[in-house]
Amino acid sequence: MSSVPPKLLFPIHPDLQFAGLIAPFDAPHHLRRTEALPYREGVVSSKPIKEGSLVNVGLDRDCRVSKKLPQGVRVTVKFDDPDTNYVLKPKGKLRGTVVSPHLPRREAGLYWGYSVRIANSLSKVFSECPFRNGYDVKVGTSEKGSDSRLLKPQSFDHLLIVFGGVEGLEYALENDESLAEDDVRKLFEHYVNTCPSQGSRTIRTEEAILISMNALSQFIHK
């Protein structure tokens, strides 16, 4: 999602008819019309101009960028002038530059959303890591793991937290012929249970993520 109306990014589709029932995700980079940052997410407008493109960034005026881009493309824009009065000014030209979506995090330490990568097996979770030096800390989650409250804060560049399906990470290992390891614990630096005495037989992945991120917060925050 971004600062612009969702309908510009996602057309009407039967699979999304109940999306409005999902709990809202009010992330800090989903800026409101009255909020200003040096960066903003946007969608390239269909309005024709002689040079460059106009980007709908969810404000009263579109932002002009020098690149000629196809209509409907989602981009991250850095404004030429980060001053709040300039960004939120209702009239006049708003100019910016299309930048990497990683720049707000690298340059200003801002959370700027996430990307999705499909791994067709447990081994590919590790082997297809997008980072040059891989994940330096890997955490597996399981009801068979040790109590996550025993973890001590640890520094890292790239942390990986892995959640199994209904039958756990053990089942994922058994069905991955690319991995010679017999003990799934040995694939991780830490193999933990983030919900001791859970009571229910299973925990849904969407529930496990929220529980685990809270349980591991002291370990994650450097």
Automatic annotation (TrEMBL):
Family: Belongs to the class IV-like SAM-binding methyltransferase superfamily.
Protein name: Uncharacterized protein
Superkingdom of the source species: Eukaryota
Signal peptide residue numbers: none
